[in-house]
Automatic annotation (TrEMBL):
SUPFAM superfamilies: Phosphoglucomutase, C-terminal domain, Phosphoglucomutase, first 3 domains. InterPro entries: A-D-PHexomutase_a/b/a-I, A-D-PHexomutase_a/b/a-I/II/III, A-D-PHexomutase_C, A-D-PHexomutase_C_sf, A-D-PHexomutase_CS, AMG1_II, AMG1_III, PAGM. Pathway: Nucleotide-sugar biosynthesis; UDP-N-acetyl-alpha-D-glucosamine biosynthesis; N-acetyl-alpha-D-glucosamine 1-phosphate from alpha-D-glucosamine 6-phosphate (route I): step 2/2. Residues 176-277, 291-427 form the Phosphoacetylglucosamine mutase AMG1 domain. It comes from Coccomyxa viridis. It catalyses: N-acetyl-alpha-D-glucosamine 1-phosphate = N-acetyl-D-glucosamine 6-phosphate. Belongs to the phosphohexose mutase family. This is Phosphoacetylglucosamine mutase. PANTHER family: PHOSPHOACETYLGLUCOSAMINE MUTASE (PTHR45955:SF1). The gene is g2561. The lineage of its organism: Eukaryota, Viridiplantae, Chlorophyta, core chlorophytes, Trebouxiophyceae. Its cofactor is Mg(2+). Keywords: Isomerase, Magnesium, Metal-binding, Phosphoprotein. Residues 498-533 form the Alpha-D-phosphohexomutase C-terminal domain. Coiled coil: none annotated. Pfam families: AMG1_II, AMG1_III, PGM_PMM_I, PGM_PMM_IV.
Amino acid sequence: MDLAQLREACSKYTKPAGFKPSYGTAGFRAEASLLHSTVFRCGLLMAARALKTGAATGLVVTASHNPVADNGVKLVEPTGYMLDQSWEVWADKLAVAEDTDALCNVIRELYQQEDIPYGSGTVMLAYDTRPSAEELVKAAGSGVQALGGLPIVCGLLTTPQLHWMVRHCNNSLKHTESTYYEEFASGFCTLVKGCKAEPQALTVDCANGVGAEALKTLSERIGAQLSVTLRNTGEGGLNEACGADYVQKERQFPAGMDDRQHGARCASLDGDADRLVYFHGMPAGNLQLLDGDRIAVLAALLIRDTLQKLPSDLPSPSVGIVQTAYANGASTQYIREQLRLETVVTPTGVKHLHAAAEHFDIGIYFEANGHGTVLFKPELIQRLHELGDCHEAAKDLLALVDMINQAVGDALSGILLVEAALRRRGWGLTEWADLYTDLPSRQLKTLTRDSGRKTDFTALQIKVKDRSVVVTADAETRAVTPEGLQSRINDSVSAVPSGRAFVRPSGTEDVVRVYAEAATQQAADDLAAEVARHVYDLAAGIGAPP
Ligand SMILES: CC(=O)N[C@H]1[C@@H](OP(=O)(O)O)O[C@H](CO)[C@@H](O)[C@@H]1O
Ligand SMILES: [Mg+2]
């Protein structure tokens, strides 16, 4: 490491005074103008991580579903997964170092403690459509170079595309953007070949983000087998009243979508195209959401149907579904009782779900918000290859392996998964929705359609003096501190039929989130409001009480 070069580079990216970025659930996020030093330091970190692992790493400049004025970074392991959790502490230490001296000290400590070899690490960089991207990618590249590394700017990509490229690069596979489309398209065409059902039209809300161009290219590669119409492709503001997060949380049709007629098939991506939800118009202009829980269930059905066709002398692979506490209780019950599959609950954040899914031969994981994927164990893939071309079912499963982004949740891959699963069953969205009925739930600032109600749902993400006073256990289903909070939540829940509620500090925003579910919408709303008040009272809420 050339110390003089490092010091000089570090001094060009000073941290704004008082700014204390934290890695959080999925990387750093903040108002874009604050982030130059943070992104530069992430460049340093990923160059060091590349040296430590002896393989290429990745960095995406994106703030996902956040407003356009924000930006952030997502950090990618050589496997294509998110940054190893054991290194998050280094990310935090680097990000908060006050000045050049402090930063160089952290670098020295990192090199010593992690035994980083000297050399040049490769870091693959990508960015989404935010106007602040150009400067921040430059900052990331400078960080990589400051440690003698090689930044490779892969361009404007969805987050999952960059994860996929890093994974393929390190597996010595073709890893161009074009190969990404080819593999996905070819897997999809294999799976729908011979389906009697015709492709059904799907309107996709692209959140005015990077997913629009990528989905356009993918659907052109696939041709007539996929019938998509793209909306919110850049004509409006990024994530502004549109996108997967908006549709899932607000339960509203996105801006620019006039498909409210009964039965219209629609889907939404988020700003960096790693989340996907489906929805359709119901009578009276209402919207029915088909969220990540349902995508997991549909994936499980497709996999079960296919596994049943494998030769019976083959040991059957273990299949499991990983969810978080936000999964609707009805989905968990359906998976356990009807699909008879094991479910595992982990804390929020894909890194936790992904790790749990790796324990199964086929691990399906989805957050309710539509972020997830399916992982196939390498040993299983090997066995499927050995079965060769003579078994249709093995071929189908291998097509699924190609079509599903196994590095990370991918909305484009998700659309192909859903469309293939529905067509192979000859189903529309109604049959999918009819598998089970969601319990009414309430979270975040979901607005009510019934204007007569008084509850202010923005209050369901509570601002408190210090959200770290809320500590949870048992996959975030139990509040350990502040003292007395959980017993108050228990009292509230026990009075409500089919009631369930939990609170947790957000890992991406300075708020405590409240979730509640119950047998009726009114009961879920009331329970959420009551629990919100407990948080406000016991965790030093600020502002007007909920
Ligand atoms: C309730 C909810 O949707 N939480 C989201 C949100 O995390 P929070 O820690 O809740 O802020 O952003 C994460 C990153 O995108 C995502 O993994 C997670 O599911
Ligand atoms: Mg996202």
